From TrEMBL:
This is DedA family protein. Keywords: Membrane, Transmembrane, Transmembrane helix. Residues 30-156 form the VTT domain. The keyword Transmembrane applies. The chain crosses the membrane at residues 12-30, 50-72, 104-126, 138-160, 172-192. It comes from the Bacteria. It comes from Laceyella putida. Signal peptide: none annotated. Belongs to the DedA family.
Amino acid sequence: MEQTLFELLQQYGYIGIFLFLVLGIAGLPLPDEILMTFLGYLTSIGQLNLYLTFLSSFLGSACGISISYFLGVRLGYPFLKRYGGKIFITRRRLRITQLLFRKYGNWLLFAGYFIPGVRHVTAYLAGISKITFARFSLFAYTGAFFWCATFIGLGHMLGANWEMVFDVMHKYGARLLVIVLPVVLIWLFWYLRNQSNNSYHTKQ
């Protein structure tokens, strides 16, 4: 897996990251978290630029979920029910996401990124529900920001041990995010502040 991802990145670079996330969020069963954690690892060893990597991932995620939203607006529930299987949205995933969407509403657009199988459906349901694009954008793009920051940040912090993320997540599941997300955000704030201070001292 690591070698395959590295070869793809060497060939397509940041555009490849963008397209991979667009397709992954739009519905194709691609290993999004694996990719982003691996990208974080590559930034830690200087193979990729951290800021460009995050930007490519965020824009790809935002673009992918926007495509899903507009498809939901234009084509509606009958299309998703009839053809969802062709874009890997099974009826089971659809039912589960519908129940969660009714319970948590717009917040599922934010939290759904962290639930494999759910994040691919939330934007379609938001479009079908005729949620305004402004409200959709607020929750969906904020979720994309934190989702990308979490996994890229984990990969950057863990370095060569990046693969342990999946062992831990499979063991503890989404509950781990309650601990991991604040840690990653604190680290991100510290990193950006440190970079800013280093740039200031370099100029002096």
